Amino acid sequence: MDPEEEFWHELVLAGIGGRTIAEAKQNLTYVEAMNWMRYARKAGSLNLGIRLEHGFAMLATLLNNVHGGKAAFDDFLPDRGQKPEPKEATPQDLLALLQSVKR
After folding, report:
1. Using CA atoms, how far apart are residues 99 and 101, in angstroms rounded to an integer?
2. Residue 50's pLDDT is what?
3. How far apart, in whole angstroms, are the C-alpha atoms of residue 78 and residue 57?
4. Which of 50, 68, 70, 78 has the most crowded Cβ, counting Cβ within 10 A?
5. Residue 25 domain flag
6. Which 3 state secondary structure label does DSSP give 28?
7. What whole-number distance in Å separates Cα of residue 49 and Cα of residue 57?
């Protein structure tokens, strides 16, 4: 999907212009669409769901760290189909895992 298609998808997901991409393209003038594009570049995603996910991830990270955890912000974000490369475990990794269990 090219950046222009992504932009129109994001506008419609945010409820701007219509319920479909065709409606949004028909309802928005070129100038208005370009204004939304500049706003999105400046402010970030128009998708409220992504903003909520980031807010909850920030809160979860804060609570985890306050209570002695070592989690990172990305640990609380949902998987968006970006799977990290699998890494082979070493004997030291297994030993560290076993030692981390509280008795």
Report:
1. 6
2. 67
3. 9
4. 50
5. yes
6. coil
7. 12
